[in-house]
Design goal:
Elements (H helix, E strand, L loop, with lengths): L2 H6 L16 E10 L12 H15 L5 H4 L2 E5 L5 H9 L5 H4 L6 E5 L4 E5 L5 E8 L3 H18 L4 E2 L3 E2 L11 E8 L1 H5 L3 H9 L3 E4 L12 E6 L7 H29 L1 H17 L5 H16 L8 H10 L2 H8 L5 H16 L9
Antiparallel strand pairs: 1-5, 1-8, 2-3, 3-4, 4-5, 6-7, 8-10, 9-10
Helix pairs in contact: 4-13, 10-11, 11-12, 13-14
Length: 360
C-alpha cells in the first residue's frame, strides 16, 4: 500500500456500502480527543516534545493490537505528504484542516478501507475518528471506544477526576467525544421547514454545521448534526441523545419528501430533471451550483424519479468536485475559473458513465 492510494480515489471503501437510512444519512462519525499526561498540549509543545509524542503513539500502533479490530492500516507522517495530498485528505474527511497545517511531527494512521483515521499531534495529541455509512452512530462508537481502550492501555492520558479527559479546547473537556451524522435534507429545505427543525435541534444541546464542520456552509442541503456538550454527560447519554434527535429529523425528512410527491410532484420532477440536464451538459460549473444540483439529482434518485444516477457516483462527486481533488485528478494547478471548467467536465463524464478520472 502506498500513500498515493489514499489520495487517488474519491470514494473510500467504507462509502461503497449502503448503511441504514442511507437515502438521508450519508455517514455517521465518532471522534475522540485525548492528550498525554506528562506532555504539554500540542499548541505549547516544542519540536522535540511533539516528536516524542508521535514516537510514543505510533509505537502503540506497531504493537499489533489494532489490526484485529481495524484491519490492515498504514502510518503516514505528514512530512511525507505534499500540500495537495493533505488538501485531498481533508476533502475526504480523513484528516482535519488543523492537522494539515501541522508543520512539525504530525502523522495519521489510516485503515485500508479509510473508515478509521487516527491523527497524532493535531489540536490534541490523539484524535481517533471512525466513519460508518448511513445511520450507524452506535456502531461507530463501539469501534472508536475499542481503539481508545487500546491506546489507553499503553498511554497515560491527561485525566481529571472531576473534569474528565483534558483537551486543548475547553468545549471537548469531559468525555472528549464528538458524535455526528451527515444528513441530506433537501425536502425540509424545499418545504421551508429546515430553520424550524434546526432551531429545535440546537435547543437540545446539538450543533448543526456544514459539510466540513465548524464554520463551513451547508452546501448541497448537507447538514452535520453533532453533540455540543461533552462535560456532564456520559458517552452513552451523548450517543443516545444524538441518535434520538437524528431519528426524528429522518422522520421529518421522509414526511416532507412524501408531501412533495403528493402535492408538487410535477414541479419537483421538473426541478430534478433540469438539474440533471445542466450537470450533464454544462461547460462551466462553480462548486456552489454543483453542490445544489447534485443534491437535486440525489433526491431524484432516492424518490425513484431519476434512476440513471447511482448513489456511489453521487458520493464520489461530493469529493471529486472539491478544489484539491480536481487538481489531483487533472494533475495541474488550476485557477478558480479553470476549476469551474474542469469540474463541469468531470461531472459530465461521471454522469455519462465514463470513469477516466478518480477511478474506482
Amino acid at each position: 500500500m502506498t500513500n498515493h492510494r489514499f489520495t487517488q480515489h474519491a470514494l473510500s471503501e467504507w462509502m461503497k456500502d449502503e448503511g441504514p437510512e442511507s437515502e438521508i444519512v450519508i455517514s455517521s462519525r465518532i471522534r475522540i480527543a485525548r492528550n498525554l499526561r506528562h506532555q504539554p498540549f500540542p499548541m505549547l509543545s516544542t519540536n522535540q516534545q511533539a516528536k516524542e509524542v508521535m514516537e510514543q503513539l505510533t509505537e502503540v500502533s506497531r504493537s499489533g493490537k489494532l489490526t484485529p479490530i481495524i484491519g490492515e492500516f498504514e502510518t503516514i507522517p505528514l512530512s511525507e505528504l505534499t500540500e495537495l495530498d493533505k488538501r485531498v485528505l481533508v476533502e475526504k474527511h480523513l484528516i482535519s484542516p488543523s492537522l494539515a497545517n501541522e508543520s512539525r511531527s504530525g502523522a495519521v494512521i489510516l485503515s485500508e478501507n479509510e473508515s478509521v483515521s487516527i491523527m497524532i499531534n493535531e489540536e490534541d495529541h490523539l484524535r481517533i475518528q471512525c466513519l460508518y455509512p448511513g445511520f450507524q452512530i452506535q456502531e461507530a462508537w463501539a469501534l472508536a471506544s475499542g481503539i481508545d481502550d487500546i491506546f489507553e492501555e499503553e498511554a497515560d492520558y491527561a485525566f481529571d477526576e472531576r473534569r474528565g479527559y483534558l483537551t486543548t479546547c475547553p468545549t471537548n473537556v469531559g468525555t472528549g467525544i464528538r458524535a455526528s451524522v451527515m444528513m441530506h435534507l433537501p425536502a425540509l429545505v424545499l418545504t421551508s421547514q429546515i430553520n424550524r427543525i434546526l432551531s429545535a435541534v440546537t435547543q437540545v444541546g446539538l450543533a448543526v454545521r456544514g459539510l466540513y464542520g465548524e464554520g463551513s456552509e451547508a452546501l448541497g442541503n448537507l447538514f452535520q448534526v453533532s453533540n455540543q456538550v461533552t462535560l456532564g454527560q456520559s458517552e452513552n447519554e451523548i450517543i443516545d441523545n444524538l441518535y434520538g434527535v437524528a431519528r426524528q429529523i429522518i422522520e421529518h425528512e421522509k414526511a416532507a419528501r412524501k408531501r412533495l410527491m403528493q402535492d408538487s410532484r410535477l414541479r419537483i420532477e421538473d426541478r430534478i430533471r433540469r438539474s440533471f440536464g445542466i450537470l450533464s451538459y454544462a461547460s462551466v460549473m462553480d462548486s456552489k451550483e454543483a453542490a445544489q444540483r447534485l443534491s437535486d439529482v440525489r433526491l431524484g434518485a432516492d424518490l425513484g424519479l431519476l434512476p440513471v444516477a447511482g448513489t456511489q457516483v453521487l458520493n464520489e462527486l461530493l469529493v471529486m468536485t472539491q478544489p484539491g481533488f480536481l487538481q489531483q485528478t487533472f494533475q495541474e494547478k488550476l485557477s478558480a475559473e479553470q476549476r469551474d471548467v474542469r469540474r463541469a467536465e468531470l461531472i459530465r463524464k461521471k454522469l455519462s458513465g465514463e470513469s477516466d478520472h478518480g477511478g474506482a
